[in-house]
Amino acid sequence: MKKQISAKQRTETPLPPLDFAGFLRWTWRQLTSMNTALLLLLLVALAAIPGSLLPQRTASILKVNNWKNENPSLAQIFDNLSLFDVYGSFWFSAIYILLMISLIGCVIPRLKVYWQSFNEQPPSPPIKIERFEGYLKIQLTNTSLNKIEAELKNSGWRINREGNGLTAEKGYAREAGNLVFHTSMILLTIALALGALFSYRGTVIVKEGNGFANTLTQYDDFRAGKLFNIENMPNFFFTLNDFVVEFERSINQTGSPRKFEADITLNGKDDLMVLVNKPFNVAGTKIYLTGHGYAPRVEILNQKQEIVYSDSITFLPQDGNFTSTGVIKIPDEKPQLGIKASFLPTANIDPMNGPISTFPALDNPQLFMTLWQGDLGVNDGIAQSIYRLDTTKMTELGIEELKPGETWKTEQGMEIKFLGVEQFASFQVAYEPGRYLALIGASLAMLGMFFGLGIQRRKIWVLMPKVQNGPNVIEIAGLAKSDSHDINKDIDKVLQQLGIIKIEKKGNRSI
Amino acid sequence: MSTNSLSNLLVYFAIFLSALNLILFSITLGQSKKQSRVSNIAMVLTWLIGTFLAAALILRAVAAQRAPMGNMYEFAVASATAIIFAFLFISIKKDISWLGIFIIVPVIILLGLAVIVLYTESGPLVPALKSSWLLIHVSSAIISYGAFSINFALSILYLLRVKGKLKSLPSPNRIDEFSYKVVLFAFPIWTFAVISGAIWAESAWGRYWGWDPKETWAFITWIIYAAYLHSRVTVGWKGTKSAWVSIFGYAAIVFNFFVINIWVTGLHSYAGV
Question: What ipTM does the predicted assembly reach?
Fold first, then answer.
């Protein structure tokens, strides 16, 4: 939005001067030039693309790891280029920061110029105006420059009257709008930075009947900004009393979710209903319902008929019909035991793909299990996912499918009981301190944009060369700063105010 | 006949009329600039197409008891309607029947894809979409998509005109100015669509900006059109180069609608193809 420089100046881009201060000045001028701003904008757009096509750590570490396992040859290179964390990468930040510097460098001098323009009058009217747009020469009776000046002033024009002519200028709000817009972009960036530094966000899976207390150890996944202080985390706990989910049963959109409702008790006293679009708020921290799934309850007895495992296990949904996978690990048995299982809420046998779930609700629940024995690898000291079973040092003992209430008696004399199915809900807990500032920034940006794009800076000149009694001749013409504005509209309006109706219209002003 | 199948029938009628209009508009293209009888008929037909599509959307809304913006089929039909009405509203003030053919082609493609590939029976919303932001966020996106489509057609025409083709159309400069004005209208609405999306995201997912693929492409689109606006006041960019920038902006919109919705999974992936 800098003033246009002439074509000659552009083609002769000066070389950087050799002294240091001169070089700095040259760099600054290059950086804050419109051309650079434009290229930086396009570069930001380009740089944002890979993050939308590759899995991102900020969204799902699991997906990133899966992608890396599938593409081992590219994984390391991509990782080194931060392609799994594009929006936090050095190169994305670098482009963005350059854009911001260019923006600040553009806004500050313009603020100064704008401030000064308030104390300045519009420029003097030229002596001849017939070469300007919308030029008209009209004979009028009973008029004077005083009268015209008063009329124009009334409709918001700023006037500079000199001799037998005047300049009227309008549309200062355009530049104000532009400045507000660009300043609020800086504000928005500050809000994003605040969010990145002070926010925290975690996900937690809560089974029906269980609870959650807001401490680090209870989170399944937790991320916080660099300057976030754990001690500022609000104290609260809640229990998930009941989770209700309903799915579409008609042929049309079968299986689409229709209702999710989590009935919780907050801090042991307040009963709340949490819906997908309705989070609850505890001291600025918001708790959102983000997902749900099934947790089959399983009991395992060893050869000595001792209960070695009895719990419900959260299974991760893999598709829209909630085919879910989960893992049981029993590290205390010798040798160690592990189960890899699939849970199908509505089990059906597909001739091609074997057992699949055909509906997300519990119409025909079945648990498909593979029992493994050997070394779980949990003693190596490397953190293991609770959703993955490393079977490299294990041997398969057998497979079985169970319905709720059924028991699998293995050849080895163990008993595995499928007791029933519970539900779990996943919650996102988020504290985002920059959000109000971001909203203010975004709203101001909108406001600024309306003025900056909608209003045009334009001038009208009115000349009255000879003042005499009886009919006088006035000349009128105008100029808009941007050629997309039709100055004729303003001239027509002014003439109308002066009581002149323009009859002849020059052709069809199409487009 | 159910409201739903009546809605479908209207969409088919609209496609049929659009095909007819394609012929009429291509006849007018070869004629002189003055409004001919053929172009008048074509404009009347366009109003009819707009009415049919609007009625189809309303019936769909009645059938499902909600805003007709719950899946990609509805979104595609609504976008086609927005393109038609953007064209019609401009045509009230200015004679732009010469632009007709370049509007009707994308509308036919969009509606064709909608009925063949994207069709979904009308039904209730998934819980994630049950919010009053749906109407605000999606309708502003659709309106700006409609206007950006007009801008896209104009940018292509501009490039053809500059190369000396299609001499019966207005001068390149006029097309360029017109095209700029359309973006002046569309860009603030698109900005509003992005902001309202962020507000909704904050209330549904706990963050106002999370670089979800759909959000990322909305950002990319916004940045490209912002670059377009800047290119208009940068020496050496106005004209051919800025026309190309706006074409890239539209490519981002199309990519976001088809590729991201269908092939890339993200938080916006409920959109039921």
Answer: 0.86
